[in-house]
Amino acid sequence: MTIRSWDIFCTVVDNFGDIGVCWRLARQLAQEHGHAVRLWVDDLHSFARLAPEINPASPLQQLAGVEVRPWQPGTDKDFPVEADFAPHDVVVEAFACDLPFALLQRMAAAPRKPVWLNLEYLSAEDWVGEHHRMTSPHPRLPLVKHFFFPGFAHDTGGLLREALLGAQRDAFVSSPAAQSALWHRLGVQPVAGALRVSLFAYANPMLPALLAQWRDGAEPVQCLVPQGLAAQQVAQWLGTSITVGEPGQHGNLTLNVIPFVRQERFDDLLWACDVNFVRGEDSLVRALWAARPLVWHIYPQDDEAHRVKLDAWLARFSRIGVAGETAAAMTGLCHAWNGYEDYRDPARQQAAWAAFRAQLPALATGVDHWQRQLQHLGDLAANMVSFCEAQSRNSGTILG
Question: What is the catalytic activity of this protein (predicted)?
Fold first, then answer.
C-alpha cells in the first residue's frame, strides 16, 4: 500500500510565497521520492519568476520532473473533466485554496479514494500542534480532509528540507570557486571586509532609516537587494534609478541590486551573506537552514494577526538556549522591522540595529543550534508521505 502520485493545487497570494512552498514541495516529492506530481497553479507569470523555464501560456508542461498545469480557483473552467481523468493518490489543497468541484466528484467516485490534505500556513503558535492532522468530513461527498501543519515542534509536520541541503551548504561555504561563481552570476564585486547583507522584503517604513544608518556608520556594509519591492524602495530613498550590476557607493554603504534569483539558487545567496533579511514563509525556512542571523518580515495582515505569529516564532527562538540579550536583540530588530509601535521612533530603530549587530556572533551560533534542533523534526515532504501512506493502510483505499 504505497503512495506514488500527487496533485498539488496552489493559488498565488503574495506573488511568490505560496508558489515558492508548493514548487519546492513538488520538486522534492518528484526528485527525492520518485513520485508523479501534478502542480496546479493559478498564476504562471509569478511562477516564472522562480522558474524561468515556465511558459505562462502553456496548458501543460514538464519541469524538474513535475507536470505543471494552470487552473482557476472558484470555477471548473479549464479543469480537465474528460472521461479518463483520475486524481492522483494524494490531493493537496495548499493554504486552504478551494478545489474544483469536478475534482472532488472524481475523488469521491474513485474506487481508490485519494488522501486529501489541506497543507496549512507555517506558524510557531502552540495551537498548531493541537490541530495538526485533524480531520474534516466533506458535507455532501464521502471524502475526509486532513489538515497538515508545518511547524517548529514535534507535534507538527516539520519544515521542508532536502536530504542533501546540509552537504550542499558545507560544500559552498568551503569553496571559493562556488562563491566566485555566485558573484559572477549576480554581477557583484564583493567588498573586502564589509558586513554582507541580503535584503528580501516587502515595502518597509524602517528601510530608509536603516540604509542611512549603514551609510553613516563606521563599518562598511554591502547590501544585496533582489529586484522587486525592496529595490524600488531603495531607488526612492536614493532619488534615482538603480541599474542591476552597477554598485552604488553611499558613505560606508555599498548597494547592489541583483537579478531576481531563481529558487534553486536562492540558498547560495543566503549562505554567502552575514545577515539575511527575508520575507514570507519559504525564504524564512531557507534562511533558518542557512544558519545565518536573520530578520523576518512576516506577511502583514489587516487584523495584525501576523504579530501573534511573529512573537510566537521569536519566543521559540528565545527558548533554544540563547542568552537573554541575544534573544532580546533578535526580538527588538524584528519588532522594529515589522513596524511595532514601540519602534517607530528613528532613535529606537537605530538602537535595535546596533543591539542586533553587537549580538551577531551569538545570533549566528543560536540560529545554527536551532536549525540543528529543527532537523530532528524530520522533513515536511517525508512526513507528508509517511502520513499519507499510514492513511492509505488504515483505509485500505489505495492498493500497492
Answer: dTDP-beta-L-rhamnose + L-arginyl-[protein] = N(omega)-(alpha-L-rhamnosyl)-L-arginyl-[protein] + dTDP + H(+)
